[in-house]
């Protein structure tokens, strides 16, 4: 047996006990006649002591030669420490070692195994197994486990059944690109890895499973942006015989349970906001409502003066930055530079200082008097001491730009508090969105989403106005879940595919099995999927999903630790009936 | 809201309650003036009643036109039934319907949605969503969910952390064939789908995770035998600072917990048997010990007579078939034909009838007298009324043949009771096995398995004799789990790769990251993996894993429901830099 206790376990209650411990050498302090070693494992650190008086010389010598990250096993007696450390559970004791075994030596690690390491991102990815030894990374993974256990137990208690759907499925051109898997037994044919178990969970509803969930890996072969992974994990859920209200209530319950279990917080009923309202008030369909700074639309009060920039704009809109009047002219210029960066793309910014004396000073004083500016302040909710930032232009663009500014300033002002949780349902999404590239409408959620009752007719006359039975759960400015009530009859589904540009043959070839299934008694059904990686990061009060994934890939989709992907043997390619045909 | 209650919920306590129910039409009995409908959902069946007295004519007409598997919603009052059904939880009541809505019509299903269906295997696979509506299939999937929840909660309570390892990894030629995934972003390169998370779980141990588990899909591109799936699920576990004893105790605990939770049985300590002993006593490394019929080796007592078949054989071995003397000559001949089939491959069988009067009658009376046969009976444990079946020949072959016969006869005799559970550890597996095809030794478990202490030296002198720190958990004649204590130092691992025929470059290219990791302080570690599909089937008292998989593939690796795999667009192939090169 390698240990009788872990390194986080022994306290003053165990004094005089003979124990065996194993772990990694965290730190060595060698005073010659005394050597202290901090022994680490997942559970904590226990201090070992070797001293000339009681330790044989031979063992003193071996202890002196221990290096950082050596794996050792010791037997010894729990004794009271001279200088106690009240900040550690094991801080009152140490182990007087009577037996020392080196289980494995260690090269000097390429970065320090400390909470704050000196290792850069690349090095830590290459030696991820060493990075995982660091408390913050390991704690993130344990936190992820706790969240998934809480999810599973909650849903299971509510009669949801976790069903494993297949990973080797069929490629469909809808949505992002599929990863594909050549079949050797069916030469020239390919499986695809699922972008989500969408059709399978719908078939489970047709199959009477009633309540399904699955925590499941999904795959998207997209050009990776920062903090996107080619493989990611979903909490995938579906229910039969439900309306939108049932889904919102059920998963509000789940989210409330997680917030309670993990943070001990119990938010009230989650607010609901239509997509349209979210766009108007926050310029964003996943608004962070932990703070205000809501949009004030100024068209009515700022247009029809002599300021042509505003007059020609589709939308003039501003926000009040709390205590922003403190900013120097230079700081405001930097802000303007910030929103003019290509990533944001604003052409300029008008600002109004709200002075403590109630007067205003704006960058457009030539065109607007104090009375005008007072109305702007009213519309944006600005108080004395604030700064009003105003953007103008194309409505969609300008909302996105002002939303980015709002988030950036809130971050700088410390308004995005990581220990505060503000959930929100965004509902009534449009069914379709216009795609400039293909010059046609695409399904905003996916082609299985049902339109709101009675709106199917609008499809021909005013497609952009059709609202969907679709909803997102937003937490602290992040979409953590999204779903919809599905179409459940063949006719509507066929019409939807037709509208989205599928020929009847394509629709049949790709989704025939689903439309067939709808003919054999499909119940009304709907569901939701949560992005687990992001959910865990946000619940953990952090932003980067990579920090909550054991073995993440880099932005080129590579695992730099194992060096994958990699070339394949010609023999393997031959077996698959494939040849490389590189560009 | 589609329902106030499910169809398994209402009882006599609810009489006079107004309720809304939804579900599928299971059955209709139309007496003209009264129509009864059985309404089904996952939770049960509730009887609906429409009758001329209280139901408007229009609704009677619509009820009369309902078909099997129509999806309907009804509102009505719970009333007492005239003819009660004590076998159903809802058997005392029925619903007098006041409102009927048809939510979805249904074509006549291609097979009956009943516990005993008239649908053949192929049809049920194609319409799997209808098969899942049948109670036995749905209950299997719910059973699987319960088993996985029990596993997760048990392991989590024992400080195991479920960590998700990646699915897009690197192809390695060891073991079975990998499924590969071409990378678009890294053209000409491929990921592989994991055959198991073996190296990642070992890296988690190097990373100090201490106790890891994961219920995870794994992939093997093998020519499929009956009841093998290209994707299958493992309960994958690993622990640091453990010896074999720790692993056996931990997972004996898990198995005991499952048997207790699911079947209320509490077997004693699991017996342990060496591989050698299992082969000698049962001819099999996964013996079913629910019944006896142990092997009796007869070389010493049956050779050196005039029967040359035995004299020239490496092994002469028999089993006693309980009450087998009842078999007619014809039945025994059929048994001989059975073991001569190519799948079994025996050349013949000698048998001895053990008569009730204590005498023996054998097929080799010319060579053996009553005294000889009495010694055979003693060696095989045969009693009066039994039949002794004796095979001879090459030791490995003959053990396999007699083991097959033992299992077949036990099945026919009803000795393999599905409600009886006899777990067993098989230990001390050989490290290596000889491969006739490649004319060299292969790792019996995998190349990361450690030899027993002090046996590494034997590798050169007597490789076949080296025992491994490897163990299997056997339940009712099935291997449900297997694992080993791993190598955890670079030198030994490099030596093992060398011995298994990897060049140093190959070893470095494929497993360099693991050997690098071993240099930075790898703890002693080991683990086990359970085949979940099989485990669930056996715990469910059944044999076929396919019955416990929601969407299984057929023996050609095809999903006949969605029709995958399928050809790929040329455009998709171009993006991947691939061309078909079919044989």
TrEMBL record, chains A, B:
It is found in: Cytoplasm. This is Aspartate--tRNA ligase. Its EC number is 6.1.1.12. GO terms for molecular function: aspartate-tRNA ligase activity; ATP binding; nucleic acid binding. Gene3D superfamilies: Bira Bifunctional Protein, Domain 2, GAD-like domain, Nucleic acid-binding proteins. PROSITE patterns: AA_TRNA_LIGASE_II. It is an enzyme of class 6 (ligase). The gene is aspS. Belongs to the class-II aminoacyl-tRNA synthetase family. Type 1 subfamily. ATP binds at residues 220-222, 229, 479, 531-534. Residues 198-201 are annotated as: Aspartate. Homodimer. Pfam families: GAD (PF02938), tRNA-synt_2 (PF00152), tRNA_anti-codon (PF01336). L-aspartate binds at residues 174, 220, 445, 486. Keywords: Aminoacyl-tRNA synthetase, ATP-binding, Cytoplasm, Ligase, Nucleotide-binding, Protein biosynthesis. Catalyzes the attachment of L-aspartate to tRNA(Asp) in a two-step reaction: L-aspartate is first activated by ATP to form Asp-AMP and then transferred to the acceptor end of tRNA(Asp). It catalyses: tRNA(Asp) + L-aspartate + ATP = L-aspartyl-tRNA(Asp) + AMP + diphosphate. HAMAP family: Asp_tRNA_synth_type1. NCBIfam families: aspS_bact, PRK00476.1. One of its GO terms (biological process) is aspartyl-tRNA aminoacylation. It comes from the Bacteria. The lineage of its organism: Bacteria, Pseudomonadati, Bacteroidota, Flavobacteriia, Flavobacteriales. The keyword Disulfide bond does not apply. Residues 144-552 form the Aminoacyl-transfer RNA synthetases class-II family profile domain. GO terms for cellular component: cytoplasm.
């Amino acid at each position: 047996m390698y240990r009788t206790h872990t390194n986080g376990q022994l306290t003053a209650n165990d004094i005089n006990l003979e124990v065996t411990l194993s772990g990694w050498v965290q730190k060595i302090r060698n005073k010659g006649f005394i050597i202290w070693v901090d022994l680490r494992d997942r559970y904590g650190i226990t201090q070992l002591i070797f001293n000339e008086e009681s330790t044989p010389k031979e063992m003193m010598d071996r202890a002196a030669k221990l290096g950082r990250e050596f794996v050792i096993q010791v037997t010894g007696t729990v004794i009271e420490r001279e200088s106690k450390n009240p900040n550690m559970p094991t801080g009152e004791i140490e182990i007087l070692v009577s037996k020392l075994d080196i289980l494995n030596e260690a090269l000097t690690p390429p970065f320090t195994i400390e909470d704050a390491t000196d290792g850069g991102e690349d090095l830590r990815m290459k030696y991820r197994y060493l990075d995982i030894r660091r408390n913050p990374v390991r704690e993130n993974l344990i936190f992820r486990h706790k969240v998934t256990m809480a999810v599973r137990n909650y849903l299971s208690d509510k009669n949801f059944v976790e069903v494993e759907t297949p990973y080797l499925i069929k490629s469909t051109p809808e949505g992002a690109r599929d990863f594909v898997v050549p079949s050797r037994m069916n030469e020239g044919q390919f499986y695809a890895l699922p972008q989500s178990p969408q059709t399978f969970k719908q078939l489970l509803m047709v199959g009477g499973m009633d309540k399904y969930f699955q925590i499941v890996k999904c795959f998207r072969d997209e050009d990776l942006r920062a903090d996107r992974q080619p493989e990611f994990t979903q909490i995938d859920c579906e229910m039969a015989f439900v309306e939108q209200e049932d889904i919102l209530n059920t998963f509000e319950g789940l989210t409330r349970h997680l917030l309670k279990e993990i943070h001990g917080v119990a938010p009230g009923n989650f607010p609901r906001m239509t997509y349209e309202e979210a766009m108007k008030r926050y310029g964003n369909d996943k608004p962070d409502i932990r703070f205000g700074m809501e949009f004030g639309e100024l068209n009515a009060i700022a247009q029809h003066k002599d300021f042509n920039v505003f007059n020609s704009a589709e939308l003039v809109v501003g926000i009040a930055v709390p205590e922003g009047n403190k900013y120097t002219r230079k700081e405001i210029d930097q802000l303007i530079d910030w929103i003019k960066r290509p990533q944001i793309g604003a052409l300029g910014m008008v600002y109004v200082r709200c002075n403590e004396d109630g007067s205003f000073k704006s960058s457009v004083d030539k065109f607007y008097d104090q009375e005008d500016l007072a109305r702007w302040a009213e519309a944006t909710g600005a108080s004395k001491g604030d700064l009003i930032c105003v953007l103008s232009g194309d409505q969609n663009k300008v909302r996105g730009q002002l939303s980015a500014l709002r988030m950036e300033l809130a971050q700088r002002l410390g308004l995005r508090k990581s220990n505060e949780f503000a959930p929100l349902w965004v509902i009534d999404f449009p069914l379709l969105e216009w795609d400039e590239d293909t010059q046609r409408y695409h399904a905003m959620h996916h082609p299985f989403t049902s339109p709101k009752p009675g709106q199917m007719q609008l499809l021909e006359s005013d497609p952009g106005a059709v609202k969907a039975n679709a909803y997102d759960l937003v937490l602290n400015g992040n979409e953590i879940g999204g779903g919809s009530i599905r179409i459940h009859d063949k006719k509507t589904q066929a019409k939807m595919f037709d509208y989205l540009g599928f020929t009847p043959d394509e629709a049949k070839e790709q989704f025939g099995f689903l439309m067939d299934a709808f003919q054999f008694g499909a119940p009304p059904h709907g569901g939701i999927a949560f992005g687990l990686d992001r959910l865990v990061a946000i619940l953990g009060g952090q932003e980067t999903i990579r920090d909550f994934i054991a073995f993440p890939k880099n932005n080129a989709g590579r695992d730099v630790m194992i060096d994958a992907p990699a070339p394949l043997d010609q023999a393997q390619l031959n077996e698959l009936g494939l040849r490389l045909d590189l560009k």
